[in-house]
Amino acid sequence: MKNKIKYFVAPVALLALFSLVTSSALASSSNTTKYGPAYTPEREKVMQTIMENKDYDGWVKLMDNRPITQKITKDNFAKFSEAYLLDKKGDVVGADSLRKELGLRSKDAPKGWAMAQKNKWSKQHNIDRDNKYQRNR
Fold it and tell me: Residue ranges under compositional bias (Basic and acidic residues) (predicted)?
């Protein structure tokens, strides 16, 4: 009888532990659709001030070497900040138009846009993502 209890309690305990870990991981990543994972109200205030003042150097510092800092330069930052401010005012169409001009993803981009860009990059650089282990001929 004791063995039967052991075989029942151990899987139940593991399942409970797994559920606890999974639920806390999901809770920590909740609502990243509207706000990114680095969002805080304080950071948002700083970003708003940076965009209103068109402070490129402050923005680069705040972005901390994120990939977007490779696309947005000092030369096109004014247009980028304008897109940000238009979006905040609710002019999504105007903001998306500017984002497209900058080569950035717009809000009406289809799902899977990032993967499509990655596949486009792969084709340009002659990388076969579907068949990694293809022999060289």
Answer: 125-137
